[in-house]
Design goal:
It is built from 5 helices and 6 strands, in the order βαβαβαβαβαβ. The protein is an alpha/beta fold. It has a 6-stranded parallel beta sheet with strand order 3-2-1-4-5-6, with helices on both faces. The longest helix has 29 residues.
């Protein structure tokens, strides 16, 4: 029996557990070939569970993120659905927030989605079909104290979502953020 996502390939980041795992399973149940990505080995268990492919990547590294995007495209000739789900949290007052931690959060939750979109979207445009889903947060529209990096990344992710949606809609590519 055909399902809605037959012949579609999906890449889900942060899919080793939680929301990412649930998204990966739902995509697989609807017929998609799923590439599970996570920084931890737990992604392999999820990939095994849904008969998908596991690509381990640390999205706090620009090089590993670029490599993930390029490998995903090479593996199946393109990615039709990109779910930028990976995330992390650190809570501290801005004057005590470690700069390295700030940079790590921004890389994982804003720069990595930009990079993956950059390396994957050309194929979507060429095929005239694609879906990019950015997992933002209520913190993408309102702030909370002690979460300056997280709030900044999620606000930026909504701005990236809006920009890419305007640039790619005419090619059949939709881009949305879930808060």
């Amino acid at each position: 029996m055909d399902t809605i996502l037959d012949d579609k390939t999906a890449l889900v980041t942060g899919a080793g557990g939680g929301i990412g795992r649930s998204i990966a399973l739902a995509l697989a149940q609807n017929g998609a070939r799923v590439i599970v990505s996570d920084v931890s080995d737990s992604g392999q268990d999820v990939a095994d569970e849904l008969q998908g492919t596991f690509l381990q990547a640390d999205l706090s590294s620009m090089e590993e993120t670029k490599d993930l995007g390029l490998r995903a495209v090479e593996l199946f000739g393109g990615v039709d659905i990109l779910v930028n789900n990976a995330g992390l949290q650190h809570v501290a007052p801005v004057d005590e927030f470690q700069e390295e931690m700030w940079t790590r959060l921004i890389q994982v939750m804003l720069i990595a989605p930009f990079q993956l979109t950059k390396y994957i979207i050309a194929g979507m445009k060429k095929r005239k079909w694609g879906r990019i889903i950015n997992m933002s947060s209520i913190h993408g529209v309102v702030a909370s104290p002690y979460k300056s990096a997280y709030v900044s990344a999620k606000h930026g992710l909504i701005g990236l979502t809006k920009t890419v949606a305007l640039e790619s809609g005419m090619y059949g590519v939709t881009v949305n953020a879930i808060c």
